Amino acid sequence: MKLLFVLSLSLIASLAAKGNQWVDLFNGHTLEGWTEKTKEGSFRVEEGVIIGTARSGLGSTFLCSNKDYGDFELEFETKLVDNELNSGVQIRSKTLEPKKGEKYGAVYGPQVEVTGRNFVRNGSGNIYGQGWKTWLTPQESKKAHTFFKDGEWNHFRVVAKGDQITTWINGNEIITTTVPADRHETNPSGFIGLQIHGIKKGTGPFQVAWKNIRIREL
Q1: How far is 15 from 72, CA to CA, in rounded Å?
Q2: Contact criterion met (CB below 8 Å) for 162 and 71
Q3: Per-domain residue ranges for the chain?
Q4: What is the DSSP-derived secondary structure letter of residue 98?
Q5: Taking the CB of residue 117, how many other CB atoms lie within 10 A of it?
Q6: Does CATH number 2.60.120.560 belong to domain 23-217?
Q7: How far apart are CA 85 and CA 204, in angstroms?
Q8: Using CB atoms within 10 A as the burial measure, which of 82, 123, 157, 213 is most buried?
Q9: Distances (CA, A) of 111 to 5, 13, 177, 188
C-alpha cells in the first residue's frame, strides 16, 4: 500500500510538471496549428516570423490557434512594421455562428491591445472586448505608457487566471484587468488569435509581425 501511495504521488507530480511546461504555438516554419477564421490569405511565414498584411478595405482578420486555452501564461514578440497599423492578440476567444455565405462567424473575446498610433502615451497591453465593442479595461483605469517601441520587436507577457488578466510589455507590468462576470462566463476559455486590424480604403498595405509565441497552461 505504501509503495502504491508513493507511486501515485510520483505519477501525479509527473503529470503536474508536464502540464506546466511551455509549448511553442508557432513552429517557426509553417502555420500548422493555426486557422484563418475570417479573411483568408492575410498571413504568411518568412524567415521564422509570422507576417500579417492589412489590405485596403479588407477589414479585420484573425489567425487563430486550433486549441483552446483557459488559465495560462502566454509570451510572444510582435512588431508593427508599419506603425499606422493597429493590431492585437486575442485570448479566450470564440466565433459566432457563421451567417449565410460565411465560412466562419465573427471573432469575439478579450484582446490584448497592440497599437502604434501613439508612442508617447501608448495603450498597448490594455484589454479590449473584440466583438463586444467595449474596453474590458475600464476607461478610467486604462494605462498609458512609453514601454512599446516603434519599429522594434516588443516582448509581451500575459497571465490569464480566473477573471484576472495581467499584461507586461518589455518586462514592464502594464495592468491587471478584471473581466466582467458576464464576459468571463461566456469566455472562460477559447483560442489565441493574431489580429490584423482593418484599414480604410485607399490606404496600406500595412504589416505586423509575430515570433516566439509560446504558452504554459496553469
Answers
A1: 16
A2: yes
A3: 23-217
A4: P
A5: 13
A6: yes
A7: 9
A8: 213
A9: 44, 33, 11, 14
State pLDDT tens for residues 76-88. 999 999 998 999 9
- DSSP character at residue 141: G
In this model, does residue 31 exceed pLDDT 70?
yes
Q: What are the two backbone dihedrals, phi and then psi, of residue 76, each rounded to the nearest 5 degrees? A: -160, 160
Residue tagged 465573427 (cell numbers): 106
What's at 109, amino acid-wise? G
**Interatomic CA distance for residues 125 and 146, integer angstroms:** 11
Q: Does a cis peptide bond (omega within 30 degrees of 0) precede residue 98?
A: no
Residues ≥6 apart with Cβ < 8 Å to 69: 91, 92, 160, 189, 190, 191, 192, 215, 217
How many Cα atoms are found within 13 Å in the side-chain-facing hemisphere of 22? 9
Q: What is the DSSP string of 28-84?
A: SS--TTEEE-SSSS-EEEETTEEEEEE-TT---EEEEEEEEESSEEEEEEEEESSTT
Task: Work out the number of other CB atoms within 10 angstroms of the CB of residue 9.
Answer: 10
Average pLDDT over residues 47-65: 93
pTM beyond 0.85: the answer is yes
Cα–Cα distance for residue pair 117/89, rounded to 1 Å: 16
Q: What is the CA radius of gyration of the chain?
A: 18
Give CA–CA dist 25/128, Å, rounded: 22
Q: Mean pLDDT, the chain, as a whole number? A: 91
* Residues in a beta bridge with 168: 157, 173
CA 98 to chain centre: 22
